[in-house]
From TrEMBL:
This is Cell shape-determining protein MreC. Residues 134-292 form the Rod shape-determining protein MreC beta-barrel core domain. GO terms for cellular component: plasma membrane. Involved in formation and maintenance of cell shape.
Length: 300
C-alpha cells in the first residue's frame, strides 16, 4: 500500500474534518488579497518609475536638442542672408537690363516720331483713363466679371474699355449710379479684334471659359501692332508663322478697345487655333483703369 493511501486511511479527528475546508477558503482569500496588494504596489511603483524615466528622458532630449536647434537657427539665418543677397543681385541685374531696354525704347520712340513727322502721319489721340477701385474681384477662374466702385456719377459708360497696367482686362457691360460691371476678356461672350506682334496676323480673340483665350483668324490682311494695314496676302501666299511667345495687341477695329494695348501672349499654336493667355492676375485685382469716352471737339 502506498504512503498517501495509508495517511488517508488514518482516521482524522472530527474537529479537523470540520475546520479544514473553511481554513482552505480563508487561506485562499488571504492569498488573493496579498497578491492583489502586491500587484497594486508593483503597478504603482512601475507607473512612478516610468513617469520619472520619461521626465528624465524628456529633459535630456531637450538638453541635447538645444545645440541642434541653435545650429539650425543660425544656419537658417545664414541661408536667409545669402538668399537676400542673391535676390538683391538678381534685382540689380534685372534693373540693369530694364535700364538698357528703356534706353532702346526711347531711341525707337524718337526714331518713330521722326519717321511719322516725315510721312506726315496724323498723331493718334492718347486715351485718357480714370482709376477705379475693384469692389468685387473674381475669386474663381470660372468667374468672368468683376464689380467696380464707380458708375454714372463718375462718367462711366457702357462699352468703355478697362485696363490694368496698360493691358486689356475687359469692357463695361452694365452701369449703375455708383458701380459698374466688367466683362473679362476670358468670358466666351468677349470678342476683341487683335493683331499679333511679329507675324502681323489679325483675328478675333474670344474667351474660352477658362484662363486661356482663342484667336479666330478672319482676314488675310496683315496689320501692324499700331493698327495700320501693311499689305494683303496674295493668292497662294502663305500666312506668316505664328510663334509661341508672341504678344497679342488690340487692333482698334470696332472702336471699343484702344489700339496697341497688350491683350496677352501666345502660349500654344495648332493648325486650327492659336491659344493666348492673359498676363493679368485676375485673382489679385485692386485698382483698374477705365478708358474715358472720346469726345469730338466742338467747332466754334
Amino acid at each position: 500500500m502506498k504512503p498517501w493511501m495509508i495517511l488517508s486511511a488514518v482516521k482524522r479527528p472530527q474537529t479537523v474534518n470540520y475546520l479544514w475546508p473553511r481554513l482552505k477558503i480563508s487561506l485562499f482569500f488571504m492569498s488573493a488579497f496579498l497578491l492583489s496588494l502586491l500587484t497594486y504596489f508593483d503597478a504603482h511603483l512601475q507607473t512612478k518609475s516610468r513617469s520619472a524615466l520619461l521626465d528624465a528622458t524628456a529633459f535630456i532630449t531637450d538638453l541635447c536638442r538645444w545645440p541642434a536647434q541653435t545650429g539650425s537657427f543660425l544656419t537658417a539665418s545664414l541661408v536667409s542672408h545669402f538668399d537676400v543677397y542673391e535676390k538683391n543681385k538678381k534685382l540689380r541685374d534685372e534693373n540693369r537690363t530694364l535700364r538698357a531696354q528703356h534706353s532702346l525704347t526711347l531711341a525707337l520712340a524718337a526714331e518713330n516720331n521722326r519717321l511719322r513727322n516725315k510721312l506726315k502721319v496724323i498723331k493718334e489721340i492718347e486715351p485718357e483713363f480714370s482709376s477705379v477701385r475693384v469692389i468685387g474681384a473674381a475669386k474663381s477662374p470660372y468667374q468672368h466679371n468683376v464689380l467696380l466702385g464707380s458708375g454714372k456719377k463718375e462718367g462711366i459708360q457702357v462699352k468703355s474699355a478697362v485696363l490694368v497696367d496698360r493691358q486689356i482686362l475687359g469692357r463695361i457691360i452694365e452701369v449703375g449710379n455708383y458701380s459698374c460691371r466688367v466683362l473679362l476678356i476670358t468670358d466666351p461672350q468677349s470678342h476683341i479684334p487683335i493683331v499679333l506682334e511679329k507675324s502681323g496676323v489679325q483675328g478675333i480673340l474670344s474667351g474660352d471659359n477658362s484662363s486661356l483665350m482663342r484667336i479666330r483668324v478672319v482676314e488675310k490682311t496683315l496689320i501692324s501692332s499700331t493698327g495700320n494695314a501693311v499689305h494683303s496676302l496674295k493668292e497662294g501666299e502663305q500666312r506668316p508663322k505664328v510663334a509661341k511667345g508672341e504678344y497679342v495687341f488690340s487692333s482698334g477695329q470696332g472702336g471699343v478697345f484702344p489700339t496697341g494695348f497688350v491683350v496677352g501672349r501666345v502660349v500654344e499654336v495648332t493648325p486650327h487655333e492659336i491659344l493666348v493667355q492673359s498676363m493679368i492676375d485676375m485673382m489679385q485685382l485692386e485698382y483698374v483703369q477705365v478708358v474715358k469716352p472720346y469726345e469730338e471737339p466742338v467747332d466754334d
